[in-house]
Specification:
Blueprint: H1 6-10, H2 32-43, E1 47-48, E2 52-56, E3 66-70, E4 79-84, E5 89-90, H3 91-98, H4 102-108, H5 118-121, H6 129-142, H7 152-155, H8 174-178, H9 186-207, H10 217-230, E6 232-236, E7 239-244, E8 259-263, E9 267-272, E10 292-293, H11 303-310, E11 323-328, H12 334-340, E12 345-350, E13 358-361, E14 376-382, E15 388-394, E16 398-402, H13 409-425, H14 431-481, H15 483-488, H16 502-533, H17 536-547
Antiparallel strand pairs: 1-4, 2-3, 3-10, 4-9, 5-7, 6-7, 8-9, 11-12, 12-13, 14-15, 15-16
Helix pairs in contact: 3-6, 4-6, 6-10, 14-16
Length: 548
């Protein structure tokens, strides 16, 4: 903050005059909660520039909670907020904090006296960075430990998604998750719910060591949501670490963003992009009509990813007329999938609804479109210590060794793909052949996706029929039990009107957008295949294959 006294700084945190509603704060007064947060920030070395307001984000259709705003009389400064690294919530800082606070230490190292060295002693029971931060949130929010009040003003303003008009997907019931069948959301969401349920069971056993208070599954899901919706990836030496940055994390996301975060030697800063040269990710930024300061979702996140992470659907207008759909493909044998080192995704980029504009990318398909006759082979070996290695041979000169699951596995997989791609593109007269092969493989994947969507739609109809049948039965039972009402009022049974919930709406929008993407991609594949089959190079290759 500036050199003004704390009281004058607190007065800056009143509501943004440009907000479209007075809901959630007193129009003429200071928001006492955000004022306390601002005072807490000042006392702990967080610098908030003059004219930066922390107030409810009321001019949005989603549950955005608090947001960061610039006062109308102030231009957005170069450095909006500066947070010392000592206040950042990462696995390393939380573990260091736990050395001072016994209950937190017992939660991170159950059965141990609380030591950073205990991580190695626990072997595979070591918590992930994500779990460490989640357990910090749960300790700070629910333990009743006096030490947790250190972050009290910040924690008290964190949202509870259970109060949202539409709960995030991790809170959805099994029936609601089932309605996602066929979409790109279904498999990762079902898998995440299973993982969180298993984590929660393990957590409860450890929690009982430090507190008698019962923690429900939805409390654990809240902590998970706080982490996933606020986490940043920050450099930590030669590696990257996951972290939540207090106060900066109140900046809401937008495709028309006005700020980004930067890391200095001593702090993390929220910096206006208007003061910085634009990168490719920042090229989407438009003139912001609102005075809210927002950050980017990240490059090319589509409907499914935003719904999965943040719990809402963005209007098409927020995509600048474009949509990004990512779908997982399971083509290829296990060896090739291990070589790739990560889930294989097709990235589909669509133009506005009024056009058939489309582009796609899937580097994994390069591993499937070539074989030994093209100079590409993969050999699996088991070392004397039991470590499995994959040796990819490309041409006569290039060999890449990959250890599946190792820390450099993804990087090695990328190296294989890039080396193979360069090698194949240099083969004279074969580029169109490899493109055709990739299109044939992609067509197979698209056919599978469309079948899954159709099956999911059928399942949705069956679920809706069962729900309607149960509702009719329930109404009949209520009428039969209410004899007095039946005698004095005419029997009036009506077919229930369609009452589509926010969740059902979100799933339907996702389904429609993905169906459009797949249909357009299928048309693109068929059109491009026809062009390639007419090309002299492909015809000559096919003729050669027939005579071989």
């Amino acid at each position: 903050m500036s050199d003004q006294d704390p009281a004058s700084e607190v007065s800056v945190t009143g509501p943004p005059p440009a907000a479209s509603s007075d809901a959630g704060y007193e129009k003429k007064g200071v928001n006492t909660d955000s004022a306390l947060l601002t005072l807490w920030a000042s006392l702990h070395g967080i610098t908030i520039s003059d004219g930066i307001l922390i107030a409810p984000a009321t001019d949005t259709d989603v549950d955005a909670g608090l947001g960061l705003f610039s006062a109308p009389s102030h231009s957005i400064p170069k450095v909006v907020i500066d947070v010392p690294k000592s206040l950042i919530l990462s696995a390393s800082t939380v573990k260091t904090l736990a050395l001072t606070y016994g209950k937190l230490a017992k939660l991170l190292w159950p059965g141990d006296t609380g030591s950073l060295a205990a991580d190695e002693d626990h072997g595979q029971s070591v918590l992930s960075s994500r779990e460490v931060i989640i357990r910090f949130f749960l300790w700070a929010l629910y333990s009743g430990d006096d030490a947790a009040t250190y972050y009290g003003p910040y924690l008290s303003l964190l949202p509870d998604p259970r109060s949202f008009a539409m709960k995030p997907p991790i809170f959805w019931s099994p029936e609601q998750v089932a309605k996602c069948a066929g979409t790109s959301l279904y498999i990762p969401l079902a898998a995440k719910q299973r993982r969180l349920s298993a984590e929660y069971s393990k957590f409860v056993d450890d929690w009982q060591i430090i507190s008698d208070r019962e923690i429900q599954l939805e409390d654990y899901l809240r902590a998970e949501y706080l982490f996933t919706s606020r986490v940043m990836e920050l450099p930590a030496g030669a590696e990257m670490e996951l972290a939540v940055v207090p106060v900066i994390d109140f900046a809401n996301h937008s495709r028309k963003f006005s700020a980004r975060f930067e890391v200095t030697q001593e702090s993390v800063q929220l910096v206006s992009v208007e003061q910085q040269p634009q990168t490719e990710d920042e090229g989407q930024r438009k003139d912001v009509e609102s005075n809210e300061i927002t950050i980017s979702y990240g490059p090319e996140k589509g409907t499914s990813e935003i719904l999965f992470t943040y719990g809402f659907i963005l209007p098409v207008d927020d995509y600048d007329g474009k949509e990004h759909v990512r779908m997982r493909i399971t083509l290829g044998d296990e060896t090739v999938q291990l070589l790739y080192g990560r889930p294989a995704l097709v990235d589909i980029r669509l133009g506005p609804d009024s056009t058939d504009e489309l582009d796609w990318e899937c580097d994994y398909l390069w591993l499937l479109c070539a074989g030994a006759e093209d100079g590409f082979s993969v050999r699996q070996t088991v070392q004397h210590d039991g470590v499995v290695e994959l040796e990819a041979k490309i041409g006569e000169d290039t060999k890449v060794v990959v250890q599946p699951g190792a820390g450099n596995g993804v990087a090695s997989g990328n190296q294989v793909v890039q080396s193979l791609r360069t090698f194949l593109q240099q083969r004279q007269g074969m580029q169109e052949i490899y493109e055709l092969r990739r299109l044939v493989l992609l067509q197979e994947a698209v056919s599978q996706w469309l079948e899954l969507l159709a099956a999911g739609e059928l399942e949705q109809l069956q679920i809706a029929d069962r729900e309607e049948e149960e509702e009719d039965k329930s109404k009949l039972v209520d009428l039969a039990e209410d004899d007095d009402s039946a005698e004095t009022q005419p029997l009036n049974i009506q077919t229930p009107k369609s009452d589509v919930s926010a969740i059902d709406n979100a799933i339907e929008i996702l389904r429609q957008r993905e169906e459009r993407a797949f249909s357009l991609l299928e048309q693109h594949i068929q059109s491009r295949q026809a062009e390639l089959l007419d090309s002299p190079a492909v015809q000559a290759f096919l003729a050669e294959q027939q005579t071989a």
